[in-house]
Automatic annotation (TrEMBL):
The chain crosses the membrane at residues 17-37, 57-78, 85-103, 109-130, 137-159, 179-203, 210-226, 232-251, 258-280, 344-371. The keyword Transmembrane helix applies. Keywords: Membrane, Transmembrane, Transmembrane helix. It comes from Lysobacter antibioticus. NCBIfam families: exopoly_VpsF. This is O-Antigen ligase family protein. Signal peptide: none annotated.
Amino acid sequence: MKAHDGQTSAFDRASRVFLLLSLLAYLCLSPALLTVLGIPYDAPYGSFVFKLHPGSYLLTIALALSLAGQGNPLVALLRRLAGQPLLGLYLLAMLSSFVYSLLRYGASGSAFFIDTLMMPAAIALILLRLDAAQLRGLFRLVLIAVIANAALGLVEAAVQHHLVPYTVAGGVPVIEDKFRATALLGHPLENALVTSIVLLASLDRPMSPLWRGSLVAFLVLALLAFGGRTSFVLTTLALLACAALGALHGLRAGRYGYLHIVGASIAVLLALPVAMALVWRSGLGARIFEGLYLDDSATVRLRIFSVFDYLDTFDVLFGISPAQIQAVSARVGLSANLEAIENFWLFMLLQLGVFGFAVFALGLLCALWLLWRRAGSGGRWTLLVFLATASTTNSLASKTSALTLLFAVLCGVAGYRMRSAQAAAAERRVAPRHAFSRIGARA
């Protein structure tokens, strides 16, 4: 028995190591960097082996070790899925979508189903085995990595130079009027989305007001450096809503008086213009502040819906291939390499058709509902902002680690809520003992 327990523990330890390595790989190895390293990850050529992110291989190994630690891996997998029916439905929906696409169109253009849509289920299956302390450690690792990435983005914005060349599609350079940092994640929008996820989720992590304020200010500045308008605007609105709701709750609970609220409001009103002036003068977020109107980037998101003019009923019901999607995109005026259908819902509808899209959408909503039920207030704001932001890009219809990182971050930060719940339960167990001791003393 002890030997078996030791073997299980060894498998679990190895699984955690590969899990952390996979997260670091997702956060550090961008498609552009992989191109520099000679790996045709996002290039329109190369073996399917190179179309999967190194982090996905590491995460698959982590899952295999985690399942092997419980004896029969298949039985362990089925047991975990049976315990989490929403996760099982999500995985089944994504597998069905992948198989449908594979059978209809072949392997070309299908790798994102694995990288983007199946790896979140893989990491969730691993996280089921972690305790509260291990989940908190995972969140701290991601937080440190995102802070380092934000710092690199701010440095890039300051010197107006990318550490890794800003390229797409296997090395096609991206030239923009306004400089946007790319840091380690390789694309401004990917950086902004992941930074937003960690920033809002960290609201559920206990920390001092000074540390929280510093973290929020630093990551908001990073959002400006990355130049993602939707992420910046929605994250800022979510932060303001959280602050307002927190102040209202504190007022009702008697922690704050009206003078505290009024004083804080006046301080914010005085500090905000100064902060905005400093940010404007620094040049951070120039693309955001100077582009708050219907520019080319925004009009692309409207133009894409004209693709239905080029489809017949069969195409709408059963979908079209990635090559046909690219051809239709060109017909509505989108550049083959530099512009895409900036709405993953629409892209998946085009590729899977109405019937396949219904399965995909149901599965995704199951996953988001699973996270929603376990999340605190910060986590729920994270989910809302993530879904709204991702819906304005082709994120979940392309290769991205954003959804996998969302699972990791929200499950990781839940470790702090688990600790609070355990502490509260311990207090409830201790309270009766103190009561009986006081009764005995009076007697």
